[in-house]
Amino acid sequence: MPTPSLPSLLGVFAHPDDESLLAGGVLAQHHAAGARTAVVTATWAPTSRRAPELADALAVLGAGPPRLLGYGDARNPESAPGEVRLVDAPLDEAVGRLVAHIRDLRPEAVVTHDAVGQLTGHPDHRRTHQITLLAVEAAGLAHLYPEAGDSWQPRALYAATHSESGVGRLGTLLERAGKSVLAVPDTYVTTTVDVSPWAATKWRAILAHRGEVARERPLPGILARLPETERAEIIRTEFFTRLTPGPAPGDPHRLTV
After folding, report:
1. d(CA 67, CA 214)
2. Cβ neighbourhood burial of 38 (10 Å; 0-12, 13-18, 19+)
3. What is the pTM (predicted TM-score) of this model?
């Protein structure tokens, strides 16, 4: 079997549909190149109405079966009845759950939300970012969470984001829907991927989240009501910031910046 031309990739996102909206293009790209891909979703229970839609979206992207941490959505009590909300979950517990998935999947690269909460500032997005940063480091240290399997250190960690110059028409659409637009400075973006060759696959994955497409305020519903050319322009580019995990080289005798 030939060696994949792109690294194995794990997406860690807060809600079903985040994976398709924010990194559906690169997930499809890596899968097409023969790389292993997978997605961990922090909120919504496996028995919830959104779990089958997530399964359909991941099948389109080639990202395997759903892996749900099972926490409640901060803004939707039906997401995981009887379970603690992600934003209220003990940090050590949530990190440990994600470490187990990282060690099981052994991805070379991980992608998650950015620190500001992915345009809208959703608290689940911010919390998922925090948990992922801690889990990626902890996964490489055998003394942390030893019950979660053998240690594994991903080589790269990326935050999906939107630059101030790149948010474009999407920002206007979100503002009209009463949502915040928390784009980051252009200098914060390290990687801009043209996913045009995989945009059709990405759009099919977004459409798999049928409940959100049927509603007008969520982003899948907003995109579904746009002319095809305008929608294609919005979804064909994905922005990321590389956040280096693990020890980084530096002066061995003093602290440097």
Report:
1. 24
2. buried
3. 0.96
